[in-house]
Please model this.
Amino acid sequence: MADVTALTFLALCLPLAGALAAPFIIRIFGANGAWLLALAPLLAFLHFLRFVPAIARGEVVAGGYAWVPSYNLSFSWFLDGLSLAFALLITGIGTLIVLYAGGYLKGHKDQGRFFSFIFLFMGAMLGVVVSDSFLMLFIFWELTSITSFLLIGFDHERAAARRAALQALVVTGGGGLCLLAGLLLLWNISGVTQLSKLMVFGDAVRESPLYLAALILVLAGAFTKSAQFPFHFWLPNAMEAPTPVSAYLHSATMVKAGVYLLMRLNPVMGATPAWEILLPFFGGLTLVVGATLAIREADLKLKLAYTTVSSLGLLVMLIGFGSEHAVEAAALYLVAHCLFKGALFMVAGIIDHETGTRDVTRLGGLGRAMPLTWVIALAAALSMAGLPPFFGFLAKEEIYTALTGGDIRAITFTAITVFGNALMFAVAFAVALKPFLGRPVETEKHPHEAPVLLWLGPAVLATLGLLAAIFSSFTHAALSSPISAAIRQTPAEIDISLALHPGVPLALSALTVLLGIGVYWQLASVRAAMAIFLRAAGRGPDHGFDLAISGLVRFAARTMRILQPGRLQIYIACTFLSVAAILIIPPIVYGELPHLPAWPVDVRLYEWAVLLIAAVGLAAVLVAHDRLTAIVSLGIQGFAVAVIFLLFGAPDLSFTQFMVETLSVVILALVMTRLRLSPDDRRPLGRRLFDGTLALVCGLGFTLLLMRATQVPFNDALTVFFNAYSRTIAHGANVVNVIIVDFRGTDTLGEIAVVAVTGLAILALIRIRAGTERKLAANDPVEAEG
Model:
């Protein structure tokens, strides 16, 4: 077990190692370095592949390290059928993406940086799917947003890429914060911080009064990450990223994170009316919106991007549908989608790389120049269209089996699915046939077959889509059934194969094909009609995002002009007003004002002398005619307090107070001298009265607080603790020093940091003043001297 834990930890760290090594390897080997870099995800894939037999038998693999045991926080991972399948898809497709990127970005000046980003992205997504602890899940969840920001904005010199990256970060990052709140609620309900342990608290979570709040927060995190309506707009805009990013993003990584989360939490939060209403509704709406928008587009990548939105909606709808067949259909479609969508995106990249355009209306006749690419595109399109003998056919048949029913709910969602699948059928063949058939069209580049680094990845994925269907019994045993079992938390056995099963599902498949052929046949007319409809519908959520960001910026600017006007007097006044309110209002509201103490009758002469010195110092501050005299007079107050400490048996505190007060007066005097501020106080009378009143109120607040504190019975628990443990734990005889240095070491460090920052600020002010004086002297020596 220790060996498995160590090797799994190493496998999780391999993408990070790839990120560190990528710039150096690319600098040495160029594009061929992709073969070497691909070893990192390949080794991780082979490691996770070892667990397939055990997971297929129903076992689980767990491991990790305790981080903060007192708070039940750990760096732990958990592998069952669901997380293992995702790990295999992430590392396996990641290997192919690394090779593909080596060919696609060959000669790019920032290729090394790109590989570092893609490996970080891979590691973040891998962390999401294997994380067992809530903390790890959230950290890696947000890392996927950050790394996708870097990848989408890779071509940062273009404004469109920067906007798309920012949009993706804002939407998915905001959803991540909602997810954090939802996880905290689940922690509050169940008392556990690990997903594997949460599975047994399904009834407690569903019956909790906090369930609905937790569900909405979790759905906000999942819907933003997996681009569900109305958050779908960021995903097509993310096509500003290089094609290797798009292929990886849409097939095996980030957008699948939300789907993974919903699948993982299905046993805990599923089987409720809210779950079975919200997920199918938003999933079905996303399915229709994505498919409709895909038909409108002419850009190959955008067409595929919107079909990804549609497919994600279909997955969410199936997860929320509630039946066993729906879960099995989601498991099958998850695998099928990863295979055909990754292949089609890489094909779109090959076409763009070899012709210089992705506009399907400007492409044609590429089948003669790029026959291998055409075969790959056709194979992937057949799977996407749900035709045999590809794995997509099995997924579509299971989907229709799951949705078939006689009630209005089943009929409605079946109609939605048939409509969405028919549009995706048309899009699949628009990508796989339109660019390759017909007369050759002149393009920016002379088209020819892509090099091996470009076609290897899509060829492998398209072939796997075929082999997975032909050897469906093996595929189900190794992947599909364990995924379904993990989602349902009950044993599952999927047995659907390529053998035709006459019935309603097959009839619905035939209807889908007929509708898809009709849409494809009239694709230009349908595209034009969709464009007219969408223009009439308005600008949509994407424009709404721009308006929201613009409004937020304006609001922030106006708020800052109010709260940060640039005048130190206002900042100090607001600070002391807050202090006065905190000190005065709560005791009045809650009846905690202190009782007036009796006047002491045994005050000694030297005690009266100390009080007189303090009063004289206060008077000296008030009547001082210049700032320097006021500063020096202010030190009298500190010295009086130091004497009081000395009289009451605290010589160490007294010595500290003497030193602090002396240094404060000296430093303030030096600073005032170097800054050469106005020697006297030029505030108007009204300002002086306001400041004086505020000072008196703050002083009164502190007085009331101290009086109330001294009237509470003394609790000597800390005194006993420090006396008992100062010598035995901290090995110090001076209790006060031990408290400051050891027991309150972090607090003391913070105080030192404050002093250091203050010193740096003072130094900056002095240098700014000195620089200003030098400029004045250079421009007008007489005025500078004056």
Remarks:
- The longest helix spans residues 745-779.
- Confidence is low (pLDDT under 50) at residues 782-786.
